[in-house]
Design brief:
By secondary structure, the protein is of the alpha/beta class. The chain contains nine helices and eight strands. Strands 1, 2, 3, 4, 5, 6, 7 and 8 form an eight-stranded mixed beta sheet that branches. A hairpin with a 2-residue loop joins β6 and β7. The protein is globular. It starts with 7 loop residues before the first strand and ends with a strand.
Length: 278
């Protein structure tokens, strides 16, 4: 078993710009409050400009690595836009001559279809929305246009209007910014909603466990004395609170990355030129 002298490096990348077509289909249906289903998505979801941006960022990332020294290990959220972004990076990795680890299980038919076992889907990285209508409280008004209000039950509509009123009183321009700014106040009037702090406790802390899991799993998977580079693809939601509290920064742009390093069990993170021990 190879022990990387540099420790394990994990890059967390937000997905590229997407159409959110599966969300639009659900919220525009006769059952707009039904849960998201990972195995029933409209694909592809990345927009052309999202795919192009992912390709540029992937090229810049692999410019810093050495295919003779580094092996790639890809994991992703279960949402199509994240899997597709991971696949762009995976393709660039192969174009550059990097070895890519094969997973025994991928937990996603779509990931299998695109990558043949080279992208593993993890629940820790996934959103799995239970009610997109309530999630849309944090969208700018234009981002709520798909909701089929005639099919929304009165109780949910009242909850939505309570939460949306808080957001609209001081709009921040994006879902992530609205979520960071208003989720605690929204949860006070809509108990079913999830706050940024709750998501931080549930997802971000789980991600730190994932980083340590990846260290062990990657070393078991990769042979040949190479360093392991893990790329994880997901969403902004779980990070907005941590970015504000830990880095005093806001937002995670499409294809923007947070870099984690694991050395002897200790985890450090880099983001926008700042480094912190977690």
């Amino acid at each position: 078993m190879h022990e990387s002298p540099k420790g394990l490096e994990v890059g967390y990348v937000r997905h590229g710009k997407a159409g959110y077509r599966s969300y639009a289909e659900i919220t525009g249906s006769e059952n707009p409050t039904k849960p998201f289903e990972a195995e029933h998505q409209i694909t592809p979801d990345l927009m052309p400009e999202g795919r192009e941006a992912a390709f540029r960022e992937a090229e810049a990332y692999f410019d810093q690595l050495d295919p003779a020294q580094d092996t790639m290990f890809f994991v992703s959220s279960n949402e199509a836009r994240a899997i597709e972004t991971a696949d762009v990076y995976r393709q660039v990795a192969h174009m550059r001559g990097f070895a890519v680890a094969q997973h025994d299980r991928t937990h996603s038919s779509y990931a299998n279809e695109l990558a043949g076992g080279e992208i593993r889907v993890l629940e820790t990285l996934s959103i799995n929305s239970k009610n997109l209508v309530l999630d849309y409280m944090f969208n700018p008004k234009a981002g709520r246009a798909t909701i089929n209000w005639e099919a929304v039950d009165p109780e949910t509509r009242v909850q939505f209007e309570r939460g949306a009123a808080i957001v609209e009183a001081d709009p921040q321009g994006t879902f992530g910014a609205n979520f960071l700014k208003h989720s605690e106040a929204v949860k006070a009037v809509v108990p079913e909603a999830v706050s940024a702090h709750e998501l931080y406790e549930k997802r971000f802390r789980s991600l730190l466990k994932l980083v340590r899991w990846a260290e062990k799993k990657a070393k078991q998977t990769v042979e040949g004395g190479k360093d392991v580079k893990v790329l994880a693809f997901g969403h902004e939601n779980a990070f907005v609170y941590a970015l504000k509290e830990v880095f005093e920064e806001e937002g995670l742009n499409n294809c923007e990355a947070i870099e984690f390093a694991v050395q002897d069990g200790a985890v450090t993170a880099k983001y926008r030129g700042k480094e912190r021990t977690l």
